[in-house]
Amino acid sequence: MAQQISAAARSFLESCALAKAITGESPQLGTKCWMVYQDENGSLRKECAKCPYAAESLKGDSISVDQHDTHTVVSLGETLNDKRILELKKILEGLLAKEIKTIFLDCSSLIAIHSGGLGVVLRAFKEQKEKKRNLFLVNPTPAVTAILESTLLSRVFQSVLSIENTLNVLGRKEEEERSGEAQRKEEERKKQLEEARSIRCWDFFKGHNPANATACAECYYKHANAERPCWLIVGQVEGVEFEYISEDCLSCPYFLKFNPEGTLEAI
C-alpha cells in the first residue's frame, strides 16, 4: 500500500537507531521496523508510538468502507491487530444490523491477522449465511490463504477474485429465484437431506464401508446415532464453531448421493 511520507518522517526514519538495528545504516522507505518491536497484541513500543514515520505509514493500515446500493466493500489494511480487530468488529456489526445482503472483505493488502480477527469474520460469515445473505473474501494474499488453510477455514469461507464477476453470478441466482428455479433446487436439497437421515451410511454400505472410512462396527456416528452427517467435521476458532466437509469424503458414493450442500460453487 503506497504511502506519501513527509520529509520530516523520512529524516526521523534515517536517524532512528531502532530502524538501523534491523535494516543497517540506511533504512529505506517501506520498512515496517515498528512491527519487529510491537508486542503480541500489536501494541507499539514507546519509542515507535512517538515516531512520525510509523504514524504516517500506519494511516494506510486503517479499514475503509465503500457502500453501494447492492453491496458493501470493506477494505482491510496490512495488519489486523487487536486495535484493528475491534474496529472491524464494530464495522461488521453495523453492516449486519443494516441487513446488508452482500459484504465483500477486500484482503488484497492483508498480510497479518490475529486469531481474534478470524473469529470476528467467522461470526459475521455464519450470521450472513443463516440469514441467506453473503460474505466473500476478495483476493486474499498468500499469507492470508496459508492461515485459512492451516485453520481449515478455507473450506468454509468463499474467496473470489472479482467483485464484478461475483455480483453477476449473484444476479443470475436472483433471476433463478424469481423464476422459481431456486425454490425447486432448495426443495431437492431438503429431500436429499431427509433421505440421508433415513438411510444412514452403515445401511447404505451394509457393513462394506470404503477402505478409507472408519469400520462400521467402530463408527461413532452409528453407535451415537448422530444427527450430523458423517461427512461433516466440526472445527473451532476463537470459540466459534464451524462445519466443513472432510476431504476423505469427497469421492464417497454415500456423500455424492446424499450431501445436501452439493459442491461449493466456484464464483
UniProtKB/TrEMBL annotation:
One of its GO terms (molecular function) is anti-sigma factor antagonist activity. PROSITE patterns: STAS. It holds the Pfam family STAS. Residues 61-170 form the STAS domain. This is STAS domain-containing protein. It comes from Candidatus Raymondbacteria bacterium RIFOXYD12_FULL_49_13.
